[in-house]
Specification:
Number of domains of chain A: 1
Largest sheet of chain A: 16 strands, antiparallel, barrel
Strand content of chain A: over 45%
Number of helices of chain A: 0
Shape of chain A: globular
Strand order of the largest sheet of chain A: 1-2-3-4-5-6-7-8-9-10-11-12-13-14-15-16
CATH class of chain A: Mainly Beta
Low-confidence stretches of chain A: 55-62
Mean pLDDT of chain A: 94
Helix content of chain A: under 10%
Oligomer: homotrimer
């Protein structure tokens, strides 16, 4: 698992803009392998987010980090390039290449660079995800080509993506059908390197929320530091969204991270802190 | 611990008969041994059941697997054949030989073959059990003879069983006193082998719920597969209950399991899936 | 972690004085060290207390041990004698020498010997503490001298203590400012040894709750047994509070413990049981 902590500034929290932010994630991957070479397993996480942003007069029940338990479990059976998962599934749209082209700052700073905007099934680190609602998915990879199909009872979603790698570039195309008009319908991405710069272009047709497009890049500045940038626009954004961050490796699985973003509602969010793997 | 996942068909869930079923159990047994040879310890479980059977329109608060925490802890002190337990105790009636003569299918399929029908103190994998209500028990074994006495504040229960093994057969007799007329009053069982077949006959006088009798058997079919069957009848069953399953060992602590049962309310329940130990 | 279980007698629980008591604590300290020698980490606990004192007719929701999850996490960065902590912080008043001069009996028996009486930020083993309310603290030690400053959004507290060790004696002085008149304002303690007896004198000015003063001692009786005693008085105590206990080491991280105290409300509390480390 890993932990992170630092400072988060959020211009939208008027009168209480600056707070401590932290996350603790303990991940348990439990597996067993049959004599026939099939791996069966489950993944659970215990994740606590302390947002520290509105508890000054101790609001009962709200924003209470203590009592953190497991999230919904994801179970799987895997053999060669084929994997079947049930429960808190990854989801074919969330899991397609290009949806998380960068990991901005310490906390993600709003994740407005994720094109599908969480309008599809996704693994939930602290909640149910599709556990409890018949989440099921199949992943298959064969050389440079990979497929992913997922479905759940949430909005009767069924989704799929196909991805192909060619000469260092990855192309992905996804589609989803559901009974919710605000769910993502189509997604596409392409990512690769122009010399020292990794770039990703991602697009999603988010149904009634309209189109969303993101351009993101990452490049090294020095031996232990990289910088990430993005710009995103969408039909339901009042303003274009953009941001920049840095990640500085401190060694031993620790890093210093920080970033700043101007979000679509024209407020600024910024963070700075450390992350450590254990 | 272990995990299991698969498909569960339940005829009684009209309109939503077939669903994914899964369970994840993480067990922690923490012990220390004194210089005098007494072992002190505690057992806790984190168990999540995903029944996936009625969340289509996202029912708030109900059937929500995420947030799984510890169950009530069971503490014990053990020395030689003597063990004292407090908290989430096993319970003398639940723990007597013959109460779980088989483990039907992937999920137990209703457990109508358990003669006492949970009308006594029992270890709870996801809840309190007798933790928080003064659960206490003493277990003692001496060669082929064993005793178990338990008590809790739940219905002011006090229960005991004695078991004796002779020539490969086990005889057990249990009794319970409580202030709830629907609690089990008496239980008896005998189990052993007729050649290749393990059989158990179990009986319980479940107070106002009347008598309950179960006959169950298990036999090997091939090197890695066994089959289990049962038939049970009870005064408060509208119909006799019966079922059959198979368990096929896949090696490495993994197995394929499935079964089908006709329950006392005349509905069919069936399951199929895998179980893995980790 | 550790566990403990035993019997607790509480004269104030009229009609239900004697009950089983237990605690299970699983502690996770997760750390990583940067190349520069800074240790980053987090501490979380899963702690379950079973008080078993009022569930005879199964009170819904109250006193329910099952479902135990993580407490609020404490994060830290440490280098040499300097440590910065955020989240569920220790707190400068709770953490100052002399606040827990003894650990009475199996359960603490009311902790009336803790001079500040929990009127300041403190690490919570089962709750949030200052996690979620911007808890932050700095600890610094330099030879015999140590400093500790802490702050949180709870009552807008800011607190500090300084401690100094000299010839086997430890002197500590603490102060706190907050917007709650019932919070501790000042605390002082001195502790050391008179021959075979460890003694601590602690004082706190608890704001509107008035002054609190505690004298406590510990001495060995035999190779594996010690005895602890205390007497405490406070402006808001109807009676002086006093108690005595014993701790007998059983080896292998296990011990037998028991004590008796006469509390400020003139009721008696007593316990007896075992504790084991794992």
């Amino acid at each position: 698992g890993w932990g992170r902590f630092g400072i988060l500034y959020n211009e939208a929290n008027v009168g209480n803009e600056t707070n401590i932010t932290s996350r603790f994630r303990l991940q348990i991957d439990a597996t067993a392998e049959s004599d026939g070479g099939v791996t069966f397993g489950a993944r659970v996480r215990m994740q606590q987010n302390n947002t520290d942003d509105n508890r000054q007069p101790a609001v009962a029940g709200s924003n209470s980090p203590a009592g953190t338990g497991f999230n919904g479990a994801r179970f799987f059976a895997r053999s060669g390039g084929l994997e079947v998962g049930v429960g808190n599934i990854y989801g074919a749209i969330e899991f397609m290449p290009g949806m998380y082209p960068i990991d901005l700052g310490l906390t993600g700073l709003g994740y407005e660079y994720t094109a599908y905007q969480f309008r599809a099934d996704a693994y939930s680190s602290g909640g149910n995800g599709s556990a409890g609602s018949n989440g099921v998915e199949v992943l298959y990879s064969m050389g440079d080509l990979s497929f992913h199909v997922s479905a759940s009872d949430t909005n009767d979603r069924i989704a799929a993506h196909v991805a192909y790698s060619w000469n260092g570039w990855t192309f992905a195309l996804g589609a989803q059908d559901s009974n919710n008009a605000a769910d993502t319908e189509l997604a596409a991405s392409v990512g690769g390197s122009f010399g020292p710069v990794d770039v990703t272009l991602a697009y999603a047709d988010n149904g009634t929320a309209g189109d969303h497009i993101t351009l993101a890049g990452r490049f090294d500045v020095g031996a232990a530091t990289n910088v990430e940038v993005y710009v995103a626009d969408a039909d339901n954004f009042a303003n274009a969204s953009y941001g920049v961050d840095f990640n500085h490796d401190l060694g031993g699985g620790t890093s210093l991270r920080g970033g700043i973003a101007s979000l679509s509602n024209d407020t600024v969010r910024a963070d700075l802190g450390v992350r450590f793997n254990f």
